TrEMBL record:
It is found in: Cytoplasm. Residues 101-329 form the Radical SAM core domain. One of its GO terms (cellular component) is cytoplasm. It comes from Archangium gephyra. Pfam families: Radical_SAM. This is 23S rRNA (Adenine2503-C2)-methyltransferase. Signal peptide: none annotated. InterPro entries: Aldolase_TIM, Methyltransferase_A, rRNA_lsu_MTrfase_RlmN/Cfr, rSAM, rSAM_sf. The keyword Mitochondrion does not apply. GO terms for molecular function: 4 iron, 4 sulfur cluster binding; metal ion binding; RNA methyltransferase activity.
Amino acid sequence: MKLNLKSLSLPELQQALAPAEPSPVAVRKVFASVFAHGASSLEEVCQAPQVPRRVADFLRDNMEMTRLEVVERRKADDGFVKYLFASPLGGRVEAVRIPIFDHKYVVCISSQVGCALACDFCMTGKLGFKRNLQTWEILDQVMQVRAEADRPVRGVVFMGMGEPLLNYTETLRAAQILSHPAGFAIAGPSITFSTAGHVQAIRRYVREGHPYRLAFSVTSAIPEKRVKVLPIEKTHPLPELVEAIREYATVRRERAMIAYVAISGFNLGREDAEALKATFEGIPIKVDLIDVTDPTGKYLPPSAEELKAFRDHLQILGAPIARRYSGGKDIGAACGTLEASQYGGVVLPPPVTAG
């Protein structure tokens, strides 16, 4: 069976190419051709400068470069673009191109087909878990978005379909390639993993000392409330998660990002703010508020007055409070709405290729 070049980190590539006796320069050139320069085919890699013939022949005999199929590109009114991909390994996943002002993009990518966590306000969770994505499938989302972008891609967030820490090996390898200077050259702190709270994986992540950031989905510091929307509370109770967050903040010497989905009439009272304060006492945090987006209508976003009152309550934390914009609602690209859907916005034509 041939190896997929898009699934190999630089050390893994060096090991795989060892029978061809490449120089370190040749290995790095192959790696950069795939990831930094976005080669579209194996032959393009083989013909890259400083790739010796014996290495090129070995690549042709032992390697392959598979691609995801772009089913469609759909643009929302606010400029967000959702890519719907089909994989030859089965299943469809989505990635979202997020404009940051007018000078760069961040790409929100998927790590699994479906998701096993079944968060009650998340459409991906309603799909159930199908399978983990391989490294090349994760990276190809970024590669194809980057190839069509009119601005540089400067950040990646693992906040699409799936729980990335339940696909630990593949997502961490992808992040290593994304951040490598000869790969995508995206700064480590500009790569974020969003987790609903898989405690063992968080502790492993902290032990290994990765440079990427974690965002912890809490949504309520009252366990009886949290379990209603985040079933993971049953297997990883909030006190265990909080201790893992404490370790993370202590080791990294930075504020932990607490993602808080704002749901009208549910988790925005004074008692919710007081629970956050009591739960995270002594832990440096910052709270990232994001309005719920639930196409089923079961959960509604807060009114402006409700959100303002909650932000006032949160002042007792003495911590930074930010409101994160979740764009692309009209095309199913907002947080919690990814379900491999096709509606709304404008369908973009494929880019025109030369020749």
